[in-house]
Design a protein that fits this description.
It is a single chain. It contains five helices and no strands. The chain is mostly helical. The protein has a domain of 94 residues. The N and C termini lie far apart (39 Å). It is a multi-pass membrane protein. InterPro entries: Metal_cation-efflux_comp, Phopholipid_MeTrfase. It holds the Pfam family PEMT.
Length: 149
């Protein structure tokens, strides 16, 4: 299997898991603090996504295989986190899980976490081959959350 094909498979699994979390029926939870708790995760997740998309610009791709003409971005939010898009997705989807209070959705979220972790490691290997400074960048920044100094 080529890297591109492997990347496409990972992207497909990622989107299927997100769709399951968002579209799976669950009992409505009418508890305001639970709803608000979900919003406290969804809102920053979406903000992180928007900021991440903006900073990547033309280097943005869902496939973990870097674009031929892509540039390594180490500024903005990427100065602190290597995969802020995955961070934003995980936060937003966890907020959706919290709002539904569905244990099945939580297990789907755990599967999404596993897939995104695997995808990030795969992507990091490819980026380290393409960009000579990437290994040093990895030492300075966290994968999904900023490193404490």
């Amino acid at each position: 299997m080529t890297d591109k094909t492997k990347g496409n498979v990972l992207v497909a699994i990622q989107f299927i898991l997100i769709a399951v979390i968002l579209l799976m029926a669950s009992d409505e939870v009418n508890v305001p603090w639970i709803y608000f708790g979900g919003v406290l995760l969804i809102a920053p997740g979406i903000i992180i996504l928007v900021i991440s998309f903006k900073h990547l610009g033309r280097s943005l791709t869902a496939n973990p295989v870097p674009l031929d003409k892509g540039k390594l971005v180490e500024t903005g939010i990427y100065k602190y986190v290597r995969h802020p898009i995955y961070t934003g997705l995980l936060l937003a989807m966890l907020g959706s899980v919290v709002q539904s209070m569905a244990i099945v959705k939580f297990f789907v979220w755990l599967a999404l976490l596993a897939v995104l972790t695997y995808k990030a490691k795969f992507e990091e290997g490819l980026l380290a081959k393409k960009y000579p400074g990437y290994v040093e960048y990895m030492k300075r920044t966290g994968r999904f959350v900023p490193r404490l100094k």
